[in-house]
Amino acid sequence: MLNLQGITKPFKYTGKDFAAGTYTWLRVSLAYQNYNIYMNALGQTIDATLASFIGFNTYLGNYKVKDSTVTINANKLQGYWALEGKAFGIGF
After folding, report:
1. DSSP assignment letter at 23
2. Is 61 exposed, middle or buried (0-12, 13-18, 19+ CB in 10 A)?
3. Fewer CB within 10 Å of terminal CB in the chain, N or C?
4. The pTM is what?
């Protein structure tokens, strides 16, 4: 039997890892993505990092975009994202 209590770090399981049976609940987050993007503004290439969550009613504690940690501590309904970068010497 698979015991998920106390797990605080990301993990990966396939359907075959779960025993057949009836479960009271199962919460699944579809995706978390964190990647660099490049944008052009007024002739300058801007290097930024995008962090995004795809899922329904996902609880977010805190997460790191690039250099900054963002604290949410709330449910986000769907399609939440954050962007961090620097343009013209100013961070955003």
Report:
1. -
2. exposed
3. N
4. 0.58
Outline where DSSP puts E strands in 21-79: 31-41, 44-54, 58-64, 69-76
Q: What share of the chain is helix, strand, coil (3-state, %, to 5)?
A: 5, 50, 45
The stretches of the chain forming alpha helices (DSSP H) are: none
DSSP structure class, residue 9: S
Task: List the chain domain ranges.
Answer: 30-91
- Both tokens of 67, joined, read 């250099």
* Radius of gyration over every alpha carbon of the chain, rounded to an integer in angstroms: 18
| Residue 65: both structure tokens together | 């975009």
pLDDT, tens digit, 9 for 90 and up, residues 13-68: 777 777 888 878 766 655 788 899 998 888 888 899 999 887 777 788 888 899 88
Pairing of strands 58-64, 31-41: unpaired
Q: How many helices (H) and strands (E) does the chain have?
A: 0, 6
**Does the pLDDT value for residue 79 go beyond 80?**
no
